[in-house]
């Protein structure tokens, strides 16, 4: 799959001003971020908002996997049905399958395109595969990983209000990110539903899975010097501003708006 992270086309619209380690302002392609956190930490909502502000690509492994599962189930693919069963139970899918899907989508973007990865990697093995694939293809590495810390009470409350479009997979929240038309998707007009994996039993299982398999990623990126941990509590506007401030402090973004 190393060959899938290839391509040389970089959109001018995706470029914006960054500051190098030496402190010199340059015209670069943009940051590459990973958002880590337990279910309900708000990383998906924040990744979407930040990607829209910075004009970078938002890669949500959850959305990509759900799209793949829907297509596979419709086609009667046994692999897709098994993936659907695992997702609805709150279990993680095999590393190889998830990594292949994400790298394929990244390969479609082209080299050095800025992005926010949300929900991937979820295991240390996936993180190693990502680093190796980027290195082998001569692509830009991950700049920073942001870990969101949030209480279990907050997580459960947020997950209860989460909604997803049954047609295009867009995510909403009854309080934090409501649709303009109640119960309908702003993008395609599809009906908003509660996700099958947002029931209490599955939520508890997903939290256990996160603690055992995803939480070790924090140490992996801490060892690389790329981890910054922030609070996932509070209003979405407050969290969003904290993210922008963090990127400026890290000298990763000078002007968060792309040039005309």
Structure description:
- The chain has 260 residues and is α/β, with parallel strands linked by helices.
- It has a single domain (2-249), classed as P-loop containing nucleotide triphosphate hydrolases (Rossmann fold).
- It is 43% helix and 16% strand.
- The protein has helices at residues 43-54, 61-74, 78-89, 95-109, 124-136, 152-160, 200-214, 216-223, 236-249; strands at 16-19, 25-28, 32-36, 57-60, 115-118, 144-149, 162-165, 171-173, 192-193, 227-231.
- The strands form three sheets. A five-stranded parallel sheet has the order 4-5-3-6-10, with helices on both faces.
- Strand 1 (16-19) and strand 2 (25-28) form a beta hairpin.
- Helix 1 (43-54) packs across helix 9, helix 2 (61-74) packs across helix 3 (78-89) and helix 4 (95-109) packs parallel to helix 5 (124-136).
- The longest helix is centred in the middle third of the chain and has 15 residues, at 95-109.
- The radius of gyration is 18 Å and the shape is globular.
Short note summarizing the structure:
With 260 residues, this protein is α/β, with parallel strands linked by helices.
- Residue fraction in strands: 15-25%
Mean residue pLDDT: 78
Largest β sheet strand count, sense and barrel closure: 5 strands, parallel
> What gap, in angstroms, lies between the N and C termini?
36 Å
> Rough shape?
globular
Key phrases:
disordered N terminus, five-stranded parallel beta sheet, three-stranded antiparallel beta sheet, 10 strands, 9 helices, Rossmann fold, 260 residues, single chain, disordered C terminus, alpha/beta
């Amino acid at each position: 799959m190393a060959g899938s992270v290839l391509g040389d086309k970089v959109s001018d619209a995706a470029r914006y001003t960054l500051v190098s380690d030496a402190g010199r302002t340059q015209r670069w392609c943009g940051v590459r971020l990973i958002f880590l956190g337990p279910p309900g930490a708000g990383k998906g909502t924040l990744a979407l908002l930040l990607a829209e502000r910075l004009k970078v690509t938002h890669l949500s492994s959850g959305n990509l996997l759900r799209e793949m599962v829907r297509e596979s189930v419709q086609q009667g693919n046994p692999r897709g049905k098994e993936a659907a069963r695992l997702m609805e139970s709150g279990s993680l899918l095999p590393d190889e399958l998830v990594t292949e899907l994400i790298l394929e989508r990244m390969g479609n973007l082209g080299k050095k395109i800025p992005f926010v990865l949300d929900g991937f990697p979820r295991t240390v093995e996936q993180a190693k595969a990502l680093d190796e694939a980027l290195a082998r293809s001569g692509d830009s590495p991950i700049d920073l990983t942001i870990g969101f810390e949030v209480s279990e009470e907050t997580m459960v409350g947020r997950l209860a209000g989460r909604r997803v479009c049954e047609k295009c997979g867009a995510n909403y929240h009854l309080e934090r990110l409501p649709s303009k038309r109640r119960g309908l998707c702003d993008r395609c007009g599809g009906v908003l539903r509660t996700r099958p994996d947002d029931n209490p039993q599955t939520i508890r299982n997903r939290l256990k899975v996160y603690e055992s398999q995803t939480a070790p990623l924090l140490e992996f990126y801490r060892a690389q010097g790329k981890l910054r941990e922030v609070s996932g509590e509070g209003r979405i506007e407050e969290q969003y501003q904290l993210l922008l401030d963090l990127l400026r402090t890290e000298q990763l973004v000078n002007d968060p708006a792309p040039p005309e």
